[in-house]
Amino acid sequence: MGTQLQHLRRDTMIAPAAPIREDIAAQLPTRAADKQQEPAIGSAAPWKAGQTAPAGYQAGQHTVALAGLQLLLGYEWLVSGFDKLLYGSFPAAVGQLLAGVLQGGKIPAPFAAFLRLMVLPHSIVIGYLVEWGETLAGMGLMAGALMTLLAPTAWRRLAPGARHWLARGQRVIGWLAAGAALGAGVMGLSFYLLDGAPSQWPMPSVAFGGALDTGLLLALGSAVLLMDVAAGWLRERSRAETAK
Q1: Mean pLDDT of the chain
Q2: In-domain check, residue 116
């Protein structure tokens, strides 16, 4: 019996695997590539250095939490800008408003000198810039947040030939949102200085007020978004240098 098994093992030929049909074999790499091109928010980047980042990713690879913060900040600036546009005569009233604030003497001296020299003589133009700047900043921030949240789903549903357009559009909107965050941060800091740069330490005299000045809070939120964009840019640069 043992001898028969030895002959069986030695003489028996194992049949080769059936060859893969050429049409099926041609589809296998494409299917594998499609699976790698479906990104998830916060996952590792599946593309190689030098390639266009797929949808679902932008300069800072925002998480859902950061996209939510961006959406809230955008809504705040959008409503504030709309309020000024609906008011109608905001640009004409800016000069009188700034003159009254400067008479109060609470504004830091360097910022007060800047307002007297650069802003008051052109108060109407500054008024238009403020109301439209707030509106456009809000729209840019909200567009960037919605793109971050909706792009992964759109990426999976779009045809492969149309995905690169979505990736390009997301990259453009991402940088526009970063510019909007920078402008919003500058405006928020300006409003904080117009409030007299109040102390943010605990004070019993403001027990019924907010802990943080609204302008400063908006500026800090924009700073968080800009730091995320910078971190994403540094990650992409490091990944590109590693791949070289």
Answers
A1: 76
A2: yes
| CA 13-18-20 angle, 5° bins | 150
Residue 172 lies in a domain: yes
| Cα–Cα separations (whole angstroms), residue 135 to 138, 148, 233 | 5, 20, 27
Q: Note the pLDDT tens digit of each residue in 118-153.
A: 889 999 999 999 999 999 999 999 998 898 888 888
Per-residue tokens: 98: 């700034």
Whether 107 is covered by a domain: the verdict is yes
At a CB cut-off of 8 Å and minimum separation 6, what does 126 contact?
91, 94, 119
Task: Tell me the CA end-to-end span of the chain in Å, nearest whole number.
Answer: 62
Whole-Å CA distances, 16 to 12, 13, 19, 39: 12, 9, 9, 38
- Own/partner contacts of 80-88, CB < 8 Å, gap of 24 or more, are 80/134, 80/138, 81/131, 81/132, 81/133, 81/134, 81/135, 81/136, 81/137, 81/138, 82/135, 84/130, 84/131, 84/134, 85/131, 85/132, 85/135
User: What is the residue whose two structure tokens read 């599946």?
Assistant: 46
Q: 228 lies in a domain?
A: yes
